Each structure stands twice: as structure tokens, then as C-alpha cells.
Amino acid sequence: MNRLAHLFRKVANFEPLPPAEQAAFEDSVSGVRRFHAHQDLIQEGSAPDGIKIIVEGMACRYKMLPDGRRQIVGYFLPGDICDLRAYLLNRMDHSVATFTRVEAAIMAPEAMQALTAKFPRITRALWWCTLVDEAIAREWIVNIGYRTAFERMAHLFCEMFMRCRAVGLTRDNGIQLPLTQIELADSLALSPVHVNRTLMELRRARLLSFQAGLLTIHDLDELRSLAGFDPNYLHLGAV
Amino acid sequence: MNRLAHLFRKVANFEPLPPAEQAAFEDSVSGVRRFHAHQDLIQEGSAPDGIKIIVEGMACRYKMLPDGRRQIVGYFLPGDICDLRAYLLNRMDHSVATFTRVEAAIMAPEAMQALTAKFPRITRALWWCTLVDEAIAREWIVNIGYRTAFERMAHLFCEMFMRCRAVGLTRDNGIQLPLTQIELADSLALSPVHVNRTLMELRRARLLSFQAGLLTIHDLDELRSLAGFDPNYLHLGAV
DNA sequence: CGATCGTTTGAGTTTGATCAAATGTGGTGG
DNA sequence: CCACCACATTTGATCAAACTCAAACGATCG
Known about the structure:
Chain A has helices at 5-11, 19-28, 109-118, 120-146, 149-166, 181-188, 192-204, 220-227, and strands spanning 31-35, 40-42, 51-56, 59-64, 70-76, 95-98, 102-107, 170-171, 174-176, 208-211, 214-217. Chain A is of the alpha+beta class and 239 residues long. In chain A, the strands form 3 sheets. A 4-stranded antiparallel sheet of chain A has the order 2-6-4-5. In chain A, helix 3 (109-118) packs across helix 4 (120-146). The A-B interface holds A 14, 45, 61, 63, 65-66, 69, 71, 73-74, 85, 87-89, 91, 93-94, 117, 120, 124, 127-128, 130-131, 133-135, 137-142, 144-146, 188-189, 228, 232-233, 235 and B 14, 45, 61, 63, 65-66, 69, 71, 73-74, 85, 87-89, 91, 93-94, 117, 120, 124, 127-128, 130-131, 133-135, 137-142, 144-146, 188-189, 228, 232-233, 235.
């Protein structure tokens, strides 16, 4: 099947790939691997191996800290490419772990090399992906540095909702967001206790519900406004 | 002269460019432009124009916030490329401003396109630059999210020192770091008052001095250790 | 049916923010 | 050369957001 459908849908925000190039891309995939929930895909300091494109499930980039805590620095959802950098960097500067069971399409670096050599449009599309990743990382700096706990969490939820919507993973106004409060805390640089209280505040304001890995947004406009969320940095064309 | 010497020196950490490719790169530069201190080079929301490579001076990426404050999300120093993204993103998701007078080499997007089409090694080198930028942005997330004010500032100073050293901009154990305490505050997500106190703490500990735009590090090993600084994310080969 | 993990609640503490004002410092014009 | 202005730095006092510690409660699972 079309294992890369989410990826193609995402990059169409930049430039749609013609069917022939989509097919060539699909053909470059050597296979699909399955990973357990809460499993490391890559560890900081190691050499990245193959390129993995998320087909199903969710994962994150994180950095371990000297006192045993961790800081999550980004999320992966279907259509995201896990270590494009495999090419160019010899040591990973962060780790990657799954939240859920993950299914990933695997590509050998050589296959990627051949593919991008042949199709400049694909090269541009992939480069665009890394630029968007970078833009998201920068928005996280702002989010963590400037916003209050309440705004910060609201902002993250907006971002995840928009990103899921861009690849067709919303159901009504809900998305799968299989995170524990502790994982949310690691993402937002908040304590788990404060995450819990902030979450209750968001619920009490009837903005959303969040349980059993399902985030439902009851009032997106209000949430966006309270979070100071401007989707421009996601570069997703249509708002 | 060799206007791109700093850039070539930086990318040599990835893969040295042979003289012929350096020359072709230089030839693609259409000219040099000068900018005043504290001037915007690009504004958020606008379409990026040309590609600018910093030849001399310092600048930053920043985002304005609704209450008029700003968050600086990265620094540019000589050898850094200012908007490679000019290519691929139609609207800037952040602004760029100078700290000092800046001299920048200008390249038309078409010239860049031609250059990268002809020299795959240059393409890889530039892509590597964006990956390093991304890695730095992620480390900033950790820095702002996890570290105390003291560690945070120490970490930033370590980073800037290492980055300057990688392009040959250290003098003894000092670097030009022409920032006011307010600009430091905008970078570290701290209040100016707290920046001042933290700076005094660093000075009192005899770790460094910072005045008149000059940062002198008296005990780099101790500073690195207190900051929890691991230079791996800068991908600069030699430590 | 414990055991484990995640969530919730309470109480006290801390880091860093805010507000306000004093003190340098460098530049400009008279 | 001095007066003045704008701006950066320093200091003091108070406040608040979020953290820590601790414990209870609730699911889920072998």
C-alpha cells in the first residue's frame, strides 16, 4: 500500500510530488520495521543507521540530562522522517524513542542518495522538511522560554492538532495523543505535578479534554487565542 | 580576499572543500553589503530575499512576542549563513537583526541553485550547516527548559566560545560578544535584573569577565563543568 | 490480589520576575 | 569642556509561578 501517504500529504504543502516520483520514493523503501512502545530507536552518541519514516504511531526526540531527567525536544508523527541526518552527521546529538508501537518504513542511506540524486524535487521537499523541523524547534524555544505553563500546554496541543490535521489524522476535533502527564512534563519543561494542575485548569475552562491518549479540543479558536498560537511556523499553507 | 574563509573553515569540520569548489563558491557571490548595528535584516512574515553569508559582525534570529518582548532564538557569527531557507520557505517564521555593524556576502538564489547543482559536496556541506543549526536550536530548548539561570548563562558562553574558536575568532581565551545584558536576557529567557545578578555571580566565582562586548573566560574547564556543557551538538570534530 | 504505574491533592519552598530607583557611561551639542 | 540625555548596569524589596516533597487514590496487569 501507500506507506508514505502521510509524508506525501505533508510535503504537498510545499510542492506536490508527481505520481512517478511518489512511486520511485516508495520503491526506495527496503521494508517496514515494527517497534514496541517506549523503545529507543536511536541513542544519543551512536552513529545513525538507516533512515526511518514513520508510517504509524508516535515517537519523540529527547535528550537525557545529568540528573536522570529528560527533555523531549520534538515529536514524530506519521509522515515524519526520523533521521535524515543519518547521512551527514556521524554522531547523534539526541535520542529517539517511541511513545506507542511504531511502524516505520526503512530506507538505506544509499537508496536515499540515489533517489535525491535523480529527483531534485524530492531533494527540495526533504530539505523543506528539515527546515520545518527547525522552525518547530525554534518555536519550542519561545514556548518554553516565554509562555506560562497554561499557554505553553495550550500551544503544544494546538501544534499537535494542526500537525495531525495536516496529514489527515484528526477525528472530529480530536487526535490521538498517547502521552502520560509525565511525558507532557518532559516536553514542556514543567514538573508532573504542575502539568496535572494546568491540565485541570484547561479542562475546567472547557477548552479540551485529555484522557486515555485522546486529546479532544472543544474550542480551538479560544485555545489558539489563549496560547498565542500562530500556525505560520508550521508552513502548512492552508490554515 | 577570501570573504568566505570562516564558512569554509566551519564546514571543514564536516568535509573540507577543495580549492576549486571554494573558488566557485566565491565566484557565486554577487557582492558584499554592509548593515548598521541593531538593524533588521529580515522581518518575520516577509518573503526572504537573497542569501546572506556573514563576513564580519554578529547578528541574531528572534521572534517578537505579543507583549512587545522578544525572544532571541539563535546567533549568527562570521561564516554563518543567514537565510538559506530563502529557497524553500515563502514566508519567514522569524526575524533577523544585527547586534553590530555587519558585513555580509550576498548570493542570488539562482546562483546558489546553480552552485549546488554543480557541486554535490557543497550541497552536502550546506545541508550539514542547517542540521547543525537545528541541533543548536534543540540544545537551546534544553538550556532554557532545564538549566538554572547560572548554568544557562554559563552554557551559552561556552557555546559561543566554542563556535568562535571553530572559525578562528578567539583571542587568547576571549571572544567578541557585543551583547547588552538586555540582549542576553532576551536570549536566555531571563529578566534583565536576573541576568545582571547571574553575571555578577559568574564574575565573583572568577570564571569569566564580560564587559564592553568582550567575554574573557578565565577557567573554561570549570565553566564547562558547571554548565553541563557537552560540545557534541556543535559537531565540530576536534574538542 | 498485590504490584506497578499514573494521576490527583496538599503544604511548604525556591527561583526568578516585577517594580522602583540609584548609579554609571558614552555621545552630542552648546 | 561641560551639561545633558539616553541608555546600560546595579541594587533593594516584594511577589508569584512553578517546584519539591509527601501521600493518597485509581487503574491495569500478570
